[in-house]
Amino acid sequence: MFFVQEKFIWDKIHDAIIRKIFDHRMVRRLQQMLEDVCERRDHLTIGSIFSNIKKAMYIHWETNEEFKRRYLMNRANRASSKSSNYTCGLATFMKTKVKLSKLLDRDVMMAETLKYTHTLKENKE
């Protein structure tokens, strides 16, 4: 991925984490742009994606049966009540660990955090 470092100065030890954050944010933006185009919300991505590329994506999305099937299945899974039964949501694992540490007023192990994030809401104390 294209990464410009000319205008920014930071320690070499921070380079890897900064690149990781940048890559993560760019992936999220690209996913959102593609979702907007797929949902025909083109006004949100004006100038971002060329019209010939958009046309090719529309043709693929509308004619590829496997894509349609997976798209509809994933959309239904996200909307189902079952998918909201777990507690972690969009929070990162480390944020959840910090939250759990504050909640229990002690340092928690990674295994405890994993168990906490994979426990159903109805079974939490």
Describe the protein's architecture and organization.
- With 125 residues, the chain is an all-alpha fold.
- It has a domain at 85-125.
- Helices cover 58% and strands 0% of the residues.
- The chain is built from five helices and no strands.
- The chain has helices spanning 15-38, 51-63, 65-79, 93-104, 110-117.
- Helix 4 (93-104) packs across helix 5 (110-117).
- 1% of the residues are buried.
- The mean pLDDT is 75.
Separation of the first and last Cα atoms: 44 Å
Question: What is the N-to-C order of secondary-structure elements (H for helix, E for strand)?
Answer: HHHHH
Structural class: mainly alpha
Low-confidence stretches: none
Biggest sheet layout: none
Find the count of extended strands (DSSP E, 2+ residues). Answer: 0
Percent of residues in β-strands: under 5%
**Shape category:** flat
The Cα radius of gyration reads 20 Å
- Helix % is 55-70%
The average pLDDT is 75
**Tally of separate helices:** 5
Q: Which keywords apply here?
A:
mainly alpha, single chain, 125 residues, 5 helices, 0% strand
Q: How are the SSEs placed, and which strands pair?
A:
Layout: H1 15-38, H2 51-63, H3 65-79, H4 93-104, H5 110-117
Helix pairs in contact: 4-5
Task: Describe what is shown at a glance.
This protein has about 120 residues and is an all-alpha fold. The chain has helices at about 15-40, 50-65, 65-80, 95-105, 110-115.
